[in-house]
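Readers outside the structure-tokenisation community will struggle with the description of the input data as it stands. I therefore recommend that a typical entry be quoted early in the introduction. An entry of this sort, consisting of the sequence and the corresponding backbone structure tokens, reads as follows:
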Amino acid sequence: MGSKNSIEVCFTPAIYSLHHNPEAIVVVVDILRATSAICTAFMNGVKHIIPVATKKEAKEYKNRGYMVAAERDGLVLDFADFGNSPYNFTRNKVENKDIVYSTTNGTNAIHLASSCYRVVIGSYLNISSLTQWLVDENRDVVILCAGWKNRFSLEDSLFAGALSQKLIDSGLYETICDSVHCALDIWKVAKNDLNNYILKAAQKSRLAKNGLDDVIDYCHTFDLTNVIPIMEGNLLKPYLVESNNDLNNITCQNHKL
């Protein structure tokens, strides 16, 4: 592999133990909808997000007075303030707030990766800033797809291909991981008509069944924010990548918002 950093893609949390690298940065990806919602929340000024894996934990936080965003199978839990549509995380709701967050797939993946060097949240909304931040960190990267209940998901795997391509194009990354090559191939097929290609995804149908598929195009929008949500302790905190108004030519100055 030479002196370049490595990329691996883990298509489902069920096999994360096979990809675990304690020295790597893990990028958690749950495009529809958890990581897109998290990036939206920080874009709109949320102070911290506390990801929890279980409904019990989320309810305990609610009983302590926290604002809670929580869902299972796409539906808002009965005690929660709202679910995990990015459209819920508007500035008037979340600015300067601490929000507890629990979802079907994404928050479990965050906790699963917590013993690595660092956990960071990825979405199309911050993909260019995320790429530059990873390049500047200069470490191996594992892209962890949250999937659907430990199954492969098309939307997360597509994003893994998009991010892998950007990292490889930086000249500082290479891979011998078959999962990366698979994700790259999927991305090459989809990238020129992404919004149409993603209609194949099972999660699109799951969301549509509950009238929640209005976020599909939004969750596949590039570079709306240069905020990077990073796990510190039990909190996700925001880091800003200074872009000089050009998210495709970023100078990274990591600091908290």
Summary: The chain has one domain: 5-256. The first strand starts at residue 5 and ends at 10. Confidence is low (pLDDT under 50) at residues 244-257.
